[in-house]
Give the backbone structure.
Amino acid sequence: MADFTSDVPVQQSAAHRPPRTEFCVYFGIIFLATLPLATLTWALAAIRQGSLTDKGPIARAWSQARIITPMIFSA
């Protein structure tokens, strides 16, 4: 019986590619667009809870941009 799995060429996945300029531009635009809403929701959460939350407005906007930008490129 022959083993055909040993000579399979290794392909680099998309995760190991460096980010392209277009991706960075879209990420920046989306980050700037989500920043005002993230600041508003952070402020409302801080007022309701009476203290500052774990994630600040920049971290919230950054995570939203990290979620939205790949959705655009996978469509």
